Amino acid sequence: MKGTSFYSNYDNLEINEMKCPKCSFENREGAKFCLKCGNPMELRCSSCGKALPAEAVFCDECGHDLREPKEAPPIDFEQPQSYTPKFRVPLEGARI
Predict the structure, then answer these.
(1) pLDDT digits (tens, 9 = 90+) for 6-23
(2) CB 86 within 8 A of CB 78
(3) Deepest of 50, 62, 67, 79, by most Cβ within 10 A of its Cβ?
């Protein structure tokens, strides 16, 4: 095997990777969750709800631009649960 690289059979192998939208870690193609941070590797179109790959810029179902920010739900100031966080971390030294 003199003069032959161990990796010579893999020189033409194409490795497809998917970049995590949260931490930019390179994951294998087809991964459903990021190996580094656990973030889902798919997006959901905010217009039609279709599951899309993390690198999508437009929805291939309805054409929605995925770069547009999501619209925040309206706040009903008469119902505090609509704007109060689900849990609170007490401040150090605060009485509970």
Answers:
(1) 444 444 434 457 788 789
(2) no
(3) 50
